[in-house]
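Propose amino acids for all 307 sites.
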């Protein structure tokens, strides 16, 4: 039997089913993401049990056949696979503590956002109560749920991932990162670091454009062109960073300081808050003051790490 066939058997044997023979799942948390997930499971023919602190959010899902549990304990007890979509791990612990003994024998797939250390803490906490834990980091907004081209990071015991992979792939594609329960959150948070920094840069540049009479829609194709060039820069720099090569042969941090000073002067002359470009300029100046002026911009990586 091949690995794929063995995983398929495991998934079929371990999917709890209701009386109709449907695979089943419990979904706790009905914010926009949780509602999208519940809808995806219903679309895929799952028997879905729901619980949320505000039960009114479940009305349209109940009309489609989902069942609303009276409390968190009943929701957890209803199915072996329990998917959480909550604000953070404080909410996760509050809900799971209320579930009590019902946790024993359950697999909790925690798709709530928090730090890698909180994910490890949750895994230990659940293990003490006889439950398994998979950490997840969803890489798409609610509109991307139910699309195989979307992706979610997962980490935790590989046997749990294999057992429930088919159910997880109802939501998005599944990118398993390893046994450490903190890894999925680590990958998710570094993606968010890149996302929020990049989006904020676009919004700041748009503010400067508008302050100078250039509408956002007129600026859009130029912003898009710059963003489209970034994969080429990343592909060029990543191997150099991995090799520890920060030679300033194509760029230098001193050049970056000069460029950022021009940006900062333009921003301030436009009447726009200069805190963001000032922070960048100060970071580059710090690197130059540390003797890295002749290094590539990638010389910021060891600086950020305190090396």
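Proposal:
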């Amino acid at each position: 039997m091949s690995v794929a066939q063995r995983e398929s058997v495991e998934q079929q044997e371990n999917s709890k089913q209701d009386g109709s023979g449907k695979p089943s799942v419990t979904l706790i948390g009905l914010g926009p993401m949780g509602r999208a997930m519940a809808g995806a499971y219903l679309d895929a023919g799952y028997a879905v049990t729901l619980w949320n602190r505000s039960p009114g959010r479940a009305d349209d899902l109940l009309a489609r056949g989902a069942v609303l549990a009276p409390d968190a304990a009943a929701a957890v007890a209803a199915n072996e696979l329990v998917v959480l979509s909550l604000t953070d791990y404080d909410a996760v612990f509050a809900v799971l503590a209320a579930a009590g003994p019902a946790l024993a024998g359950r697999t909790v797939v925690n798709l709530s956002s928090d730090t890698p250390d909180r994910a490890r803490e949750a895994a230990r906490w659940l293990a003490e109560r006889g439950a398994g834990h998979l950490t997840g980091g969803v890489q798409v907004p609610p509109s991307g749920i139910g699309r195989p081209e979307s992706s979610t990071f997962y980490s935790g015991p590989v046997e749990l991932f294999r057992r429930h992979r088919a159910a997880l792939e109802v939501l998005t594609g599944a990118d398993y990162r390893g046994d450490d329960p903190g890894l999925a959150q680590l990958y998710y948070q570094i993606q968010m670091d890149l996302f929020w920094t990049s989006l904020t840069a676009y919004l700041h540049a748009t503010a400067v454009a508008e302050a100078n009479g250039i509408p956002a829609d007129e600026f859009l194709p130029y912003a898009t062109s710059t963003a489209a060039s970034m994969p080429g820069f990343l592909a060029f720099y990543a191997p150099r960073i991995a090799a520890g090569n920060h030679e300033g042969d194509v760029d230098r941090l001193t050049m970056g300081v000069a460029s950022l000073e021009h940006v900062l002067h333009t921003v301030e002359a436009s009447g726009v808050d200069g805190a963001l470009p000032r922070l960048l300029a100060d970071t580059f100046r710090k690197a130059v003051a540390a003797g890295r002026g002749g290094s590539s911009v990638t010389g910021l990586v060891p600086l950020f790490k305190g090396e």
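Confidence is low (pLDDT under 50) at residues 1-15. The first helix runs from residue 3 to 14.
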